[in-house]
Structures
1.
Amino acid sequence: MIIAVDGPAGSGKSTVSKEVAKRLGITFLDSGALYRTCAYIKIKYQVSGKELIDFVTLSKMFFGKDGELFLTINDNTEEVSKKIRTPQIAEEVPKVASDKDIRALVTEKLREMSETESVIMDGRDIGTHVFPDADYKFFLKASSKERAKRRMRDYEDQGITMSLEALIKEIDERDKIDSEREHAPLKKADDAIEIDTTHLTIEEVISIITARTN
Ligand code: DC
C-alpha cells in the first residue's frame, strides 16, 4: 500500500504521516529529507552542476529504524538527520530540488525504498509524479502565518531563533519556488483529498487520514 501526502512546508505533513505510519504499522518516508541531503552534499563537498549530480548518483541514502537518515559517500557513512534541518539547508534546498536530474535521482531512490513494503510518503510531488497510482492521496495546506509559527517552534527546539516575519518570508519564497518550478512543481493531484490544517489539531488530521485508509 502506498499513501501519498503532499503539501507546502509546515502544513503538518511529516508530523501527521509519522504518526499515521505508527498506527497503521507501515513505514514513513520523508522525501524532503532526501532533497535536503542533496543540498547538504552540495554545501559539504562544495560541488554543483554535473559534479553534484555525480556525488548524488554515487551516494546511498537510507532511513534507520527510528527514522534517522544516513548518507554514505565513498565508504563514509554519517547520520544527517539533524544536519539537514538548518536555516542554511532550508535556503539552499529549493534550488537543488528544482534541478531535473536531481529530481530523477531522488525519485528513483524513493521508489526503490518503497518496493518491498507499505509506506506513507510525504513531499510535494508524491501523488503527481513519484506514485501517480498511489492507493491514497492527501494534500495538506495551511496559512503561511500558521506554517511559519510551526517552523519557529521546530527551530526553537533546536536552539535556533528566527523572527516570525523572517519565517513567513522564507516560507512564502519557498512556496513560490516549489510551485513555480518547471519540473514536478508543488501541486495537488486531481484525485487527492485536500485537508486545510490551519485550525485543526494534529490528532484531527490523523483521524481524517486513518478513517479514509483503514
Ligand atoms: O518538506 P521539506 O521542507 O523537508 O522539503 C525540503 C525541500 O524539498 C522543499 O524545498 C521542497 C523540496 N521537495 C520537493 O521538491 N519534492 C518533494 N517530494 C519533497 C520536497
2.
Amino acid sequence: MSEYFTQVGAIRYEGPESRDPFAFKHYNREDVVEGKTMAEHLRFASCYWHTMRNELSDPFGPVTARMPWDDGSTTVENAKVRARVFFEFLAKCGIDYYCFHDRDIAPEGASLAESDRMLDEVVEEFARLQDEHGRKLLWGTACLFAHPRYAHGAATSCEAGVFAYAAGQVKKALEVTHRLGGEGYVFWGGREGYSTLLNTDMKRELDHLAAFLHMAVEHKKRIGFAGQFYIEPKPKEPTKHQYDSDAAACLNFLREYDLLEHFKLNIETNHATLAGHSVEHELEVAAAAGALGSIDANRGDELLGWDTDQFPTDIYQTTKVMLSVLSAGGLAPGGLNFDAKRRRESFEPVDLIHAHVGGMDAFARGLKIAAAIRADGRLEQFRKQRYASWDSGIGAQIESGAVGFEELAAHAAAHPEPELASGRQEMLENLINEFI
Ligand code: XLS
Ligand code: NI
Ligand code: NI
C-alpha cells in the first residue's frame, strides 16, 4: 500500500537523552506504572475532524494545510483515500484509538438516506482498515452543528423537523459506531444553547434535549450497543451560551431528567478554561459524581478567549490531569483523545506527527510524575492530615449523622475557639516542583 508520511518510519521510544524529533522521549507503551502499561493508562486517540479534515483556515484567511492525498472532492472515493492515510498515520504514531463525527468521515448527501448510504460504504472501509492496522474506535459522534439546518440547534431547535432530522442522524451514527466496535459515543451539543433569550424558551428546549437523550438510550438498548455514553461540557462557542456549560451543569441536567445512570462526562481541557475552571476542577467534579468518563486532551492559550484546541504540551497540566485520573482509578473505557489542531502556520503533513508525538510524550511524562508524587505520599498525607479533625470526636459524630444543631451549639459553647492550621499552598507547590 502507498505511504503518505514517507519522511518518517514508525515512531519509537528512544528515552529522554534522544534528540530525534521523531522519537518518544517518555512514552514507552510497555512501561509499567502503578501496575498497568502506559498504553493501558493513557489510551490515546486521534480525532478525524482535526487530523484529516481541518484545513487550517481562520476568519482572516483561507486554508493552508497541505493534504496531497486529498483531491478536494466530496466523493466517497476521496473519503476512502483519506481513511487510508489516517490509519497509516495512527499506526506510525502508535496511537491505538480514534474518534470521528459521521460527517467527517463521509460526505453529506442530498437526503438523509443518501448520506446514510455513503456513510455505510465508508464505514466498511474503516472496518477493513481497523483490522489491517489493529486500531480501535474510542468513540463516535454525529455532527449536529455544521449544516445550516442546525442553525438554531439540533435537539433544542425551535423547529420540530430539525429535531427529527437530528434523531435520524444520531440513530445512524450509533449504528455505525456499534458496527465499528466503538467503545463509546459522545454527545457534544454544538449549538444546543442560544444567542439571545429574547427568542428562546429555555425550559422547553431543555425538555426537548432530555427527550432526545432518552430516545438515544432507548435506541442504544434496541441495537445492543454496550459502549459508554458521554456528554461533553462546553460553555459557549459557537453559541453565546450552551446548556452543557460545565461538568456541574451537565450533572444537574442529567440528574433532573433521570439520565445520570446512562451517561458519563467527556472533559475537554480548553472547554474547562472557557468555563472559567481548570481542567482538574472539571475532572474532580465529574469523578466525585462517579461520572468521569473520558478526556479531550488539548489546551487553550491564556491570552486568547476561545477554543484554540492546541496540543497539550504543558507538563504541569498533564501532571495535574494524571493525578486526578490516577486517583479516580483510570479512564477505561474512556481515553485521552487529542481534540487538538495544529496552528495555521504548521501546514505540512509532518506537523501532524510532531503534534501528536509531543502530546503523547507530555502525557507520558505527566503520568510518570503523577505516579512518583503518589509513591512519595507526602501530598496525600498532607491532604489527609488536613481533615484529621473529622476522623474522631465531634467531626466523626457529624459525619455519621449522630449530632444536630443542638449538640453542635453545645459543643461550640463548651470548647475554646478552634485552632486552624496553615493551608501551606506554597509548600505544596514547591513539593510538586520537586518532581517536575
Ligand atoms: C468542539 C468539541 C467537539 C467534540 C465532538 O469544541 O470539542 O470537537 O469533541 O463533537
Ligand atoms: Ni471535544
Ligand atoms: Ni472543543
